Amino acid sequence: MTIIFQLLLTALVLLSFVLVVGVPVAYATPQN
What we know:
By secondary structure, the chain is mainly α. 84% of the residues lie in helices and 0% in strands. The protein has one helix at residues 2-28.
């Protein structure tokens, strides 16, 4: 149970990190 919770927490942190980094990059790239 603890391992599953730890994996879920890690996935959540990674998802948050990807969103925080990815959104500004997506807006910074010129779109035509």
